Amino acid sequence: xxxxxxxxxxxxxxxxxxxxxxxxxxxxxxxxxxxxxxxxxxxxxxxxxxxxxxxxxxxxxxxxxxxxxxxxxxxxxxxxxxxxxxxxxxxxxxxxxxxxxxxxxxxxxxxxxxxxxxxxxxxxxxxxxxxxxxxxxxxxxxxxxxxxxxxxxxxxxxxxxxxxxxxxxxxxxxxxxxxxxxxxxxxxxxxxxxxxxxxxxxxxxxxxxxxxxxxxxxxxxxxxxxxxxxxxxxxxxxxxxxxxxxxxxxxxxxxxxxxxxxxxxxxxxxxxxxxxxxxxxxxxxxxxxxxxxxxxxxxxxxxxxxxxxxxxxxxxxxxxxxxxxxxxxxxxxxxxxxxxxxxxxxxxxxxxxxxxxxxxxxxxxxx
Length: 367
Hints:
Blueprint: H1 3-7, H2 23-37, E1 41-42, E2 44-46, H3 51-54, E3 59-61, H4 63-72, E4 77-79, H5 84-93, E5 99-101, H6 110-113, H7 117-131, E6 135-140, H8 145-153, E7 157-159, H9 164-174, E8 177-181, H10 184-193, E9 201-205, E10 210-212, E11 222-225, H11 237-246, E12 251-254, H12 260-265, E13 268-269, H13 272-281, E14 287-291, H14 294-303, E15 308-311, H15 327-338, H16 350-364
Parallel strand pairs: 1-4, 2-3, 4-5, 6-7, 6-8, 8-11, 9-11, 12-13, 12-14, 14-15
Antiparallel strand pairs: 9-10
C-alpha cells in the first residue's frame, strides 16, 4: 500500500486504548473472542508474522496457501494476519458472503508497490512497440490485485516461488518472451535454472520507462521488472563469503528472492516451504545459515533446538510491514467484529477481481 493510499485511511488507525493494554489481557481477550465466534471466524497467519500473532492462527503458511485455505473455509470473517496483497488474494478467492479483514491497513509490501499499474500499462505499450505480440506477462503472487488483473487480461498467470519454474516453462511455450513482475530476482533465478542465459534477460526500469540492457533487444527472452524484496535483497555476497571463511561447517539455504549472486553461492535455494521442510528433514546436529525473514528464522531455531540455525545476515531485522500486525491490531479487529463493526475490510473491485482470478486460475490449473 502506497503512502498516498495511507492518507485515506487515517480514521482507521488503532485506537489509543489498545496501546496501553497488557499482553496478558490482550491474549485472554483474543482467546475469548475466538472461542465465541467459533467456526464463523478464520485467522490465517503468514510464516513471517510474529509469534505473538501466529499463536492465534488457525493455519500458518505462505500467502497463496492461506488464501486458498480461506476460500475452502466457510467462515464468515477472515482476519488475515499478513500484508495487503495477501488479503486481496483471499478476497478474490473467497465467496461473496465472506469478509476479509486486515488488522492494520499499513501492512503493505514494498515489492508489490514497486509494480504500479499505471507504470505497468505504460511499459507494456512500449514493450509492444518494440517486440509486438510476442510477450506473455507473469506476476509473482506478491503483487497487487491490479497487477494480477493486468496479467490476467493479457493472457498471463501468477506464479509462486514454489511453482515459478513450472509456470515459466508454460509461458515460454505460449510466447517467445516473458515479462516477469514485480521481483527481478525470482524471475532471474528461475529463468537461469531453466537454461535462459543471463545475457538474454533485460531489466525494465519503470521509473524511466526504459530497458536496462547492453545487447541487441531482439535477443531478449525474459524481461525482468526492476523490483525486489527489501528483506531478501539485504542478504549479500559478503555474508556468504564471511560464513564460508568462518563457519565452513554450515550449510547455506536462501530464498530465490535473493540476488542471483547470493543464490549461486549458496548450497540450497527455494521457497519458504522448501526452507522449512529442508531444515525439518535435516539430521540432528546439522548447522544452517538461512537467508530469509527473521521471524521465520527465529521460529525455525525454536522448533529445531537439536540443530544450529542462524541468519545468513546477523544484522537483519524482521520485515517491517509484516510486523505491523501485532496483538493490539488483532484484538482491535476482533473486538470490532464482536460489536458488529467491520474494521479494515479488504474488498477488490469486481472487474479487477474477475481478471485477477483469470491469472490465478491459469496457475492453479497447471500446478
